[in-house]
Amino acid sequence: MSQRDGARRLIIEGDSQYVGEWKGDRKHGFGTLTRGKYRYEGEFSQGKRHGKGVLWVGDKKVYAGDWVEGWRDGHGATPDYVGEFANNAPHGRGATSDYSGEWKNGKREGRGTCEEFSGEWSNDKKHGTGVLTTSRGVIHGTWSNGDLVNGTLYAQLPVLSKLEG
């Protein structure tokens, strides 16, 4: 039985197909794998997404970046996140539209800034020291599981206008 090597097209089943390079009877090199509404265009190694690639759902790009053995791993971007990934989740430095900082297993973890708060995070909650800006002023404090446990409010004083007369 001969092995597939080089450029080939393979219909897997129904509406699934792979068009690309093969090595040793496995997807290897550049190719496009389509399964229903999902389409991956990029590099393969030993039959898995590995290297640079883009994942589409219909006509919407849902991920572009690094892949390791079939998982999003390394630097990449989704429509709402840009940064580092590990095991298919945000992990390392990254940013969304409202948060920029460190991530662990898809949750905010470590130092980061989210809209009005800049400080330490754990398990997606404010945890540790930080600074919170409110309409009443700025709070320098310590948080535990998202709750302020102690802090100092530096009140914002009203702006006084010059009186004429």
From TrEMBL:
Q: Where is this region: Disordered?
A: 89-128
What is an example of a Pfam family matching this protein? MORN
Q: Give yes or no: UniProt keyword S-adenosyl-L-methionine.
A: no
**Coiled-coil ranges per UniProt:** none
Stored InterPro entries: MORN
Q: Does the record carry Repeat as a key word?
A: yes
Q: The organism sits in which domain of life?
A: Eukaryota
Name of the protein this chain belongs to? Uncharacterized protein
What are the UniProt keywords, alphabetically?
Repeat
Give residue spans, biased composition: Basic and acidic residues. 104-114
